[in-house]
Amino acid sequence: MSGIAVAVTGLGLVTPAGIGVAENWVAVCAGTPTAATDPELHGLPVDFSCRVPDGTGLVPRRQLWNTDRHTRFALAAAHQAVDNAGLDPAGWDGARVAVVMGSAAGGVGTLEAQHRRLIDGGPGAVSPLLLPMFLPNMAAGRISIECRATGPSLHTATACASGATAIGTALGLLRSGACDLALAGGTDAMVTPLCAAAFARMGALSTRRNDPAGASRPFDAGRDGFVLGEGAGVLVLETLPHARARGADILALLTGYGASADAHHLTAPDPDGRALARALTDAVTESGARPAEVDHVNAHGTSTPQGDAREARTLLRVLGGRPAVTSTKGVTGHTMGAAGAIEAAYTVLALAHGLVPPTANLGAPDPGLSADGRALDLVRGTARPADLRLALSVSSGFGGQNAVLAFRRAP
């Protein structure tokens, strides 16, 4: 069933750049960084982050006590996506609707808080809702319940590639005939003291404490690490016959997916980029295209020295210097398992609007990112109008995970 295109008919976004698609697109195209000093990280080696503007007002008040922050993000993004697609769960055949969500950590904020209660107050202080709030699959579970989706309900965990892996998994379900419609994406809320301390101890985070807004600077010569972020992105995916039968507005086509593993190191990317190159090639080939036909890449581009260098060299080797490349993490920071889904949505919007967002904070591209005398066509400064037909969204994660999604402009 490979090669069968699937329609993207709805988008939902909850990110540091804003709540909703319109707000996100304006902020990302303006290249406005969202990193700021974070009071909840006070006293830590790195005390700034990219937070969702209002993480509590996303769901009804009655749900605040029994949902983790990452689930609230997911529910809000899913409801946005369903509305954006012009769908009403009350009227669909739930058995033909799948939910596939990814995250790197699930309800880690709840786990940290409840562990403190255990230490301070003993076992009786622990909430009986700890597990339903913490377990990583609960975002998919809650979406399934609220949207009356009784088809396959799955959780993917491929670290920071989780959201992209979820979308690729949903593509496979749709192509196999297991469902007609899928809500797919990623969510994470890892801006917590424990996670921030752990990433800082690894040396993964930027240490620009005096300039948080300028800290996330993908592909820049002065980059020194990523900025921790949070959020969720959900896409409504449908088989083309299903979308056309109901007269849906098709935003883009999901035409290819490539996945691979570096098999190199637990946290460091393979500097040769061989597995990432294969994922890129597979996504393009599955789209019925050649690498020279790719117009735009939303890169993983986390702002780490090793990661950006590996990705830049691999993109050049596989695609050449033609595609317009951006990393929207200059605006949102690194939203962990949600990143692949959020950036997939931005890629769909780029195709729909014929506009490539700039890479925020990219002042002086690192000359070391070139290969064989070629350099990436990095979009910086202002958003660039372009005739975009085929675009890729690239994600990678700890454990050597790679996931690449290919989208075509809507017919």
TrEMBL record:
Keywords: Acyltransferase, Transferase. Residues 3-409 form the Ketosynthase family 3 (KS3) domain. SMART domains: PKS_KS. The keyword Transferase applies. It holds the Pfam family Ketoacyl-synt_C. Belongs to the thiolase-like superfamily. Beta-ketoacyl-ACP synthases family. PANTHER family: BETA KETOACYL-ACYL CARRIER PROTEIN SYNTHASE, POLYKETIDE SYNTHASE-RELATED. This is Beta-ketoacyl-[acyl-carrier-protein] synthase family protein. It comes from Kitasatospora kazusensis.
